[in-house]
C-alpha cells in the first residue's frame, strides 16, 4: 500500500485535488496549453451546518481546530499537488496542509484554530465597515 497522509483543510466548501500534466504546450493565448487532469482526492469542507434541520451528521468530516480532516490521501500525489499549487493562497497561507501521522495533523490544526481565513460567517448584528446591521438580528 502506498504511503498516505491526513490532509487538513480550512476551505468551507471542500476541494477536488487534481494533478495537472501538460500534454501539449500551445503558444496560442486563446487556447493555452492542453492539460490532462487526474483527480486523486476530494477534501470535504469544514463548514458545519447550523439550525434545526441538520442532515445526517455521519456525512460530515471530522473537524479539528476548524479544519476538516481527510485521511488516507496518497502522499506522493499530495506532495506533487502541493508543488503544483505552491503559489495558491490556500497553500501559502496554510489553509491546506498534511502530515503522515493523524495526531500531528490534528495538533497543527489546533495550533492554527484562531487563524482567520476570510471565509468566516458574517455577524448580522455587526457586519463590518460600510455595511448596515440587520435590524432583526439579535445584538
What ranges have pLDDT less than 50 throughout 5 or more consecutive residues? none
Query: In total, how many beta strands?
Result: 6
Mean pLDDT: 84
> Rg from C-alpha positions?
19 Å
Structural class by SSE content: alpha+beta
Please summarize the sheet with the most strands: 4 strands, antiparallel
Could you say how many structural domains there are in total? 1
Beta-strand residue percentage: 25-35%
What is the H-and-E element order? EEEEEHHEH
Query: What gap, in angstroms, lies between the N and C termini?
Result: 54 Å
Quickly count the helices.
3
Shape: globular
Order of neighbouring strands in the sheet with most strands: 4-5-1-6
How helix-rich are the residues, as a percent range?
A: 10-25%
Protein architecture, described:
- The protein has three helices and six strands; from the N terminus they run E-E-E-E-E-H-H-E-H.
- The chain is of the alpha+beta class and 139 residues long.
- The strands form two sheets. The protein has a four-stranded antiparallel sheet. Strands 2-3 form a two-stranded antiparallel sheet.
- A hairpin with a 2-residue loop joins strand 4 and strand 5.
- The N and C termini lie far apart (54 Å).
